[in-house]
Amino acid sequence: MKLGFSAADEQFRAECADWLQAQMAGPFRDIRGITTLTAKAERRKEWEQHLGEHGWSCIGWPRAWGGRDATLAQQVIFAEEYARAGVPGRVNHIGVELAGPTLLAFGSEEQKRRFLPDIAAGRTIFCQGFSEPNAGSDLASVRTRGRLEGDEWVVNGQKVWTSLAHISDWIFVVTRTQDGSKGPKGLTFLMMPLDQPGIEVRPIRQINGDAEFNETFFTDARCAADSLIGAVGDGWKIAMGLLAFERGVSTLGQQMAFRNELDAVIAAARANGTARDPLIRQRLAKAEIGLRLMRYGALRMLSNTDLSQIDGAALTYKIQWATWRRTLGELAMDVLGQAGEVTGGEAYEWDLLPNLFLFSRSDTIYGGTNQIQRNLIAERGLGLPREPRGDL
Amino acid sequence: MEFAFTDEQRMIGETVRGFFAEHATSARTRAAMAADGLDHALWAAFAGELGLAGIALPEDRGGAGLGMVELAQVAEAAGAHVAALPLLGHAMLGQAIARGGSDEQKAEWLPRLATGELVSTSAWQPDVTIAGGRLSGHFAHVPHGAVADLMLVHSGDNAWIVDLKGEGVAITAHMTMDQTRPLASITLTAAPAEALDNPDAAIPAALAAGWIVLAAEALGGAQETLDRTVAYSRDRVQFGRQIGSFQAYKHRLADMMIEIEQARSAVYWAACTIDENSDEAPIALHAAKSLAADTYFMCAGNMIQLHGGIGFTWDHDAHLFFKRARSIQTLLGHGAWHREAIATMILGPACEGAAA
């Protein structure tokens, strides 16, 4: 057991920090510190391409596909320095962290050649078509239908909560391709281009006023017959494999961005004097503890190579960070007082902390609600009896 | 960076878990509770057969030369069975001497600590008087104070070793809620006291070891309450179903696991910061002690609730965990005190906040 990084790793850290800080001070200073997911989307696509040009887009991928074969420690370091430099979140997060690894694990050589270089170069932005109006926590009950017509898949149905679909190029879609099938059987995983007459993307306005996610309608939407990952009927397996990547190093980077949020709450408390309030101090200390433990929980999860063991750190990670962040949002509002309830401008657009307060209500819902997380923890982690799963 | 146990550490973990599961049985712990709160045979086997009393003491003084991570593994396993052992004071005095004793002090005391020949405790209070190498002061609640041979005393910037079997020592055992670590009142009246050579090193080392032992005991205890409650939830049937199949029940167990996993990260993070001389050590220690203690108390309380009436009986072990958890919350600084220490690090002192 060792927490410290090697001298070579620390050198790598300096290299990452220098490059990222130089970009944020120079050519991309206009996007530094952006905290919403939708602001300056075009510039952030340019940033994706800039990362690709300099080989920083997906450092954990194999060199052959535009990565650096970076070690785990190096990926951790890059994620930390990325957040520390105030670089905004990746608009191609789904492509780099989910679609790419899924293709690497399950795609054909031809599919890898077609997609991976463009994802790595920031030329292809991906979004995710999983949830539907009637398939939320019960994801396996998707109804969007796919049928093979000649050399094309034809897709009809509706997806929802499709983050960033309005600025994306491709979507991966879990479709029901076997008539009469139920639950996880009969599903197929398709990659579809968004720019086509059969797909309509309608933004959904969220409680913070932003519109990062969308409804996506498929009306005889089409993609080539070889656009499926895995085989017909493998959709559930591929989707579950993809969700496992969600627990990867990317989560660590996301959590490092939370450092900036907690620092902003601390700065606000010091500025308005609430930092002297004993109860606020207790809550800030708890937040500090929780944040540090998120890092060490992530390092435990990433260090665990014994996959035969139930990994408690991995299983509890999502609910921990989501709950931590929601609690921080509530603390932020107690620190800000009424100053947190006004925008200071004419638009319904929020600064970092009020936006955190509002946005974090989604953290405990998306990617598996806290209630679903508790079911998973109890069933997989503790071996308790399973909840109903529908027809399997 | 590798935040996982090495093969050697895994073996140590298996060994100590096996030892306590076999020997620190409920019956033996209850026998110790009814006597002086120390399972003497367990201590002899722990120190003698397994050589674990010296695990974090230097090799050239009879110890195993290992670090806080391994000490935490031992304390975690002991805590899982609420073992009636004096690990807390033992670790504190041992680390105080190892880090802040003179060569003579190390040579005199450490080998006898490593063999378990001497039982130690530790106490602190601000108002002591020292004159001509003799110490006077009153210590109201000293863990295992009635059975200990040696006491580490620290006050202000000074630290001493006091022979509790020597002159000028008056000890009164308290009837204590947690009978596996009973408290005693100790009054020193011009008792001979040996000043530690380098108290600036000894005191932080003792506190770090104490906080790590308590946090690790809490982690082990919390995990055990969860494991036992999960087992009960599978056996117990009501309304024609295993009670562990009800969401209201299983979600409480999930909440226990969520907190325990954080406590596990905290304990081994804190231990690593000492072993690796990390500048995160102060925050890690305060985090580990406060979070692990609160986690244990929450879990032990849930154990009683989720067992129903049987969990409220003396014969069931739930109260052993519950009472140990409560005592750990108070020992060496309660949760709010540790969190205020962290608040001071990140916000500055409470009385000097920026003006509104």
In which range does the helix fraction of chain A lie?
40-55%
Counting DSSP E segments of at least 2 residues, the number of strands of chain B comes to 9
Number of strands of chain A: 8
What is the CATH homologous superfamily assignment of the largest domain in chain A?
Answer: Butyryl-CoA Dehydrogenase, subunit A, domain 3
The H/E string of chain A reads: HHHHHEEEEEEEEHHHHHHH
> Which regions of chain A contain 5 or more consecutive residues with pLDDT less than 50?
none
Strand content of chain B: 5-15%
Question: Could you tell me the strand content of chain A as a percent range?
Answer: 5-15%
Helix proportion of chain B: 40-55%
What is the radius of gyration of chain B computed over CA atoms, rounded to a whole number of angstroms? 20 Å
- Report the average pLDDT across residues of chain A: 93
Report on this model:
The complex is a heterodimer of chains A (392) and B (356). Chain A has 392 residues and is α+β, with helices and mostly antiparallel strands. In chain A, 46% of the residues lie in helices and 13% in strands. Chain A has helices at residues 7-25, 41-53, 72-84, 93-106, 109-120, 235-245, 249-272, 278-303, 312-315, 317-336, 352-363, 370-381; strands spanning 126-129, 145-149, 152-160, 170-176, 187-193, 199-204, 213-224, 228-229. In chain A, strand 6 (199-204) and strand 7 (213-224) form a beta hairpin. The radius of gyration of chain A is 21 Å and the shape is globular. The model of chain A has no long low-confidence stretch (mean pLDDT 93). Chain B has a domain at 201-352: Butyryl-CoA Dehydrogenase, subunit A, domain 3 (Up-down Bundle), CATH 1.20.140. Helix content of chain B is 54%, strand content 15%. Chain B has eleven helices and nine strands. In chain B, the strands form two sheets. In chain B, strands 1, 2, 3, 4, 5, 6 and 7 form a seven-stranded mixed sheet that branches. In chain B, strands 8-9 form a two-stranded antiparallel sheet. In chain B, helix 4 packs parallel to helix 7, helix 4 runs antiparallel to helix 8 (247-275) and helix 5 packs antiparallel against helix 7 (199-235). The mean pLDDT of chain B is 97. Chains A and B meet through helix 3, helix 7, helix 8, helix 9 and helix 12 of A and helix 7, strand 9, helix 8, helix 9 and helix 11 of B.
